[in-house]
Design goal:
12 helices; alpha/beta; 2 domains
Length: about 290
């Protein structure tokens, strides 16, 4: 029962605004109690916020009986199977801009996956850590140690850790910029990498096509610009065509899948970017822990 909450629209909107503005909500029992007074039972179906300790996700189920919604339950079931018993070969495809956000996941997957394929801008600190020049490619600040840590862990793992062998480069990230394909170890000083090259995309697609399970987080390049979308499109189509279990997570990756019309051909499109990554890293999710304790 919702105790007439639908009649308290302005009241709820005020609390939503307050929730966005206040980071101390999880430790605000008064706010949690007031939110809880609107209902008799709490159902959390917002997996995308499960890694946040807010009054609305952690505080309320301390007051009310708490349950997981259908979407939350499916997310935990699908992602949980990636950690417990994935069909093999298990291929993990990681891209996007930040290697720092994925260090924990990479280290975890090195112990679970059969292959980790790296694309997007996160490949450049790794290439640089191997002593290669990356030109004007985007390199996240302060990632030298993290990149070295990843490469060291990969060197002692039985998991195949695959970096791009060719890169699409251009002088700027803009529509109409003249692009060229170069070897990953020969990126010119005045150029920036904006997509994986065709040889890399073909190799990634080959590995994906034979996978029993695929997890994909992060685009392979600047797919919003058509000239630099080919790598993301090719691996996306490979994921969609894979006969195994396919899981996609992360806002940019989901946007790419939708842009290429592949959504209906993916086993599971996760609603949680940060939440899915923290779950796969093995971190407890506060929003889920609160339900277990409710």
């Amino acid at each position: 029962m919702f105790n007439g909450a639908f009649e308290k629209k302005e009241y709820l909107e005020a609390y939503v605004a307050e929730e966005v503005a206040r980071e101390q909500m999880a430790s605000d029992p008064a706010l949690a109690a007031e939110l809880a007074s609107l209902a008799d039972v709490y159902v959390n179906d917002a997996f995308g916020t499960a890694h946040r300790a807010h009054a609305s996700t952690v505080g309320v189920p301390r007051v009310l009986p708490g349950l997981a919604g259908l979407l939350m339950a499916r997310e935990l079931d699908v992602l949980g199977r990636l950690l417990s018993d994935p069909a093999r070969p298990f291929v993990v495809l990681l891209g996007g801009a930040k290697v720092s956000d994925k260090i924990g996941v990479i280290e975890k997957m090195l112990t679970l996956a059969d292959a980790i394929l790296i694309g997007g801008a996160m490949c450049f600190p790794l290439l640089r850590s191997q002593g290669l020049e990356v030109g004007r490619s985007r390199v996240e600040e302060g990632t030298g140690d993290a990149a070295a840590q990843v490469l060291a862990a990969a060197a002692t793992s039985s998991c195949d850790f695959v970096l791009p062998t060719d890169i699409v480069v251009a002088p700027e990230a803009a529509e109409g910029a003249p692009g060229a394909v170069v070897a990953a170890d020969a990126i010119p000083a005045g150029q920036m990498g904006l997509d994986i090259g065709p040889a890399t995309a073909a190799e990634f697609a080959r590995r994906i096509s034979g996978a029993g399970t695929v997890f994909w987080n992060g685009p392979m390049g600047l797919f919003e610009i058509a000239r630099f979308a080919a790598g993301t499109r090719e691996v996306g189509e490979a994921v969609a065509a894979c006969a195994g279990v396919t899981v996609v997570g992360g806002g940019d990756t989901v946007s790419a899948v939708r842009a290429f019309g592949l959504t209906d051909r993916i086993t599971h499109v996760s609603t949680g970017g940060g939440a899915s990554m923290e779950f796969l890293e093995g971190k407890p999710l506060p929003g889920v822990e609160a339900l277990l304790d409710a």
